[in-house]
Amino acid sequence: MKNPATQYFFGTFMHTPALDQLEILHDTLISVDAAGTILSVVCPDDPSYRESLDVAKAHKHFTSIGDNGFYLPGLVDTHIHAPQWPQLGKALHLPLENWLMDCTFPLESKYQDNAFATAMYTSLVETLLANGTTSAVYFATAHTRATEILAELCVEKGQRAWVGRVAMDDQQQCPDYYRDSSTDQGLRDSDDSIRTIRQLVGNESQRVKPILTPRFIPSCTDEMLAGLGELAKQHHCSVQTHCSESDWEHQYVIDRTGLRDTEALDKFGLLTRTTVLAHANFINHSDMSIIKNRGAGVAHCPLSNQYFAGSVFPLREALNLGVHVGLGTDISGGPSASQFDSCRHAISASRMLESGVDANLKADTRGIKNARIDYIEAFYLATTGGGVMLDEPIGMFRKGYAFDALHIDTSAINSNLLFFPEIDSQADLFQKTLYAATRTDIATVWVNGAVASGHRGS
């Protein structure tokens, strides 16, 4: 269904246009064009405000939530393993290499069954949208048709997405039943997947994009990695992969290549302006400098890092250096479909990194000074920061940005989000939302101005 030529949205809008800035726009009118792009943001102090509001109220497509909550920007999830959705909340007691071989690879191999892929991916996309994830960066599987099914569903359901067929051809590290049949075939399949996703019916706006996806260096031969680097250059295509996630993966790359993970990926041409490096827990200052200089970014996955990383990502150091960072759920290494949870765990992880965790050490030697982030910074990473990393105009309410938005309903039944106007300010409400909101509190989700989930806006 096409958007109307112009829509108007009225109410209170809250967003984080900068890392350390919460902006609350009271009684504000936003107009949106047929493509779902914000045309104007008119606040009460604008000279044209009263006239603009009168015009909007008389318009057929006028949405006002009044005092019934507020708008937030859509959430940007920069690292999701789509096929692992049915595994959410299982096997998290295992080490990473065992979790992959014993549970994850057998599950992902099932996606050769297109009916299974359709059922699982439908559930995933609908659930993420209901949780407010308007933009998603997906690892799919090695199966070309199942990857196409995921992209088709994102188009159909209205979610903005980057969808990548997973390349994995190393016979020493990948099981016989689940890997590319050859390096050449894997490269052809990745090439075909890029072309197919870009040509999908209904995807003329390219809201759903392909993304080259070497699973990680341990699963790919040097020939595969070099070939994918050439495809990234040829197609001007984004790249995603894992980088220095765990002790095992980080050390494996050093032993095999003689280089640190970041250096090796750079050598193969896989660090670009729109490369997403998942985890990066073991990167050092030199690695960060390379990532920054290439314009690439890190998908920080604080919840899954607790289970598989064995370390805490040096988030504050990366931010201080100017590295692009977004947040990821890392479904199913992270057992939550909510980017609000990613925000909460990012805050907690940074606090533990700063204070330290070993009570046998003295407080002044236990942690890393000035490592913490706050709730405003966390929300920035889940919205605007993700957009910056992906080089996409998303994540805030500004002219020229996509109107991706959530209606947070402060009157939702059975909610954990408690708002007391007599003692809570609007800034308090924002903070409470970040810490307490669930999908129960999300009444409606818009992507590019079109309703993608819910219907309670009025």
Task: Describe it.
- The protein is of the alpha/beta class.
- It has 2 domains: 6-73 and 396-454, Urease, subunit C, domain 1 (Roll); 75-390, Metal-dependent hydrolases (TIM Barrel, Alpha-Beta Barrel), CATH 3.20.20.140.
- It has 16 helices and 17 strands.
- The protein has helices at 49-57, 96-109, 114-130, 144-157, 183-198, 222-235, 247-257, 261-267, 285-294, 302-308, 315-321, 339-355, 363-366, 375-382, 384-390, 426-436; strands spanning 6-18, 21-33, 38-42, 62-64, 70-73, 75-81, 133-139, 160-164, 166-167, 208-214, 238-243, 275-279, 297-300, 324-327, 405-408, 442-447, 450-454.
- Strands 6, 7, 8, 9, 10, 11, 12, 13 and 14 form a 9-stranded parallel sheet that branches.
- Helix 5 links the parallel strand 9 (166-167) and strand 10.
- Helix 3 runs parallel beside helix 4 and helix 4 (144-157) runs parallel beside helix 5 (183-198).
- The longest helix is centred in the N-terminal third of the chain and has 17 residues, at 114-130.
- The two termini are 19 Å apart.
- The model has no long low-confidence stretch (mean pLDDT 96).
Spell out the blueprint of helices and strands:
Layout: E1 6-18, E2 21-33, E3 38-42, H1 49-57, E4 62-64, E5 70-73, E6 75-81, H2 96-109, H3 114-130, E7 133-139, H4 144-157, E8 160-164, E9 166-167, H5 183-198, E10 208-214, H6 222-235, E11 238-243, H7 247-257, H8 261-267, E12 275-279, H9 285-294, E13 297-300, H10 302-308, H11 315-321, E14 324-327, H12 339-355, H13 363-366, H14 375-382, H15 384-390, E15 405-408, H16 426-436, E16 442-447, E17 450-454
Parallel strand pairs: 1-4, 6-7, 7-8, 8-10, 9-10, 10-11, 11-12, 12-13, 13-14
Antiparallel strand pairs: 1-2, 2-3, 5-15, 15-16, 16-17
Helix pairs in contact: 3-4, 4-5, 5-6, 12-14
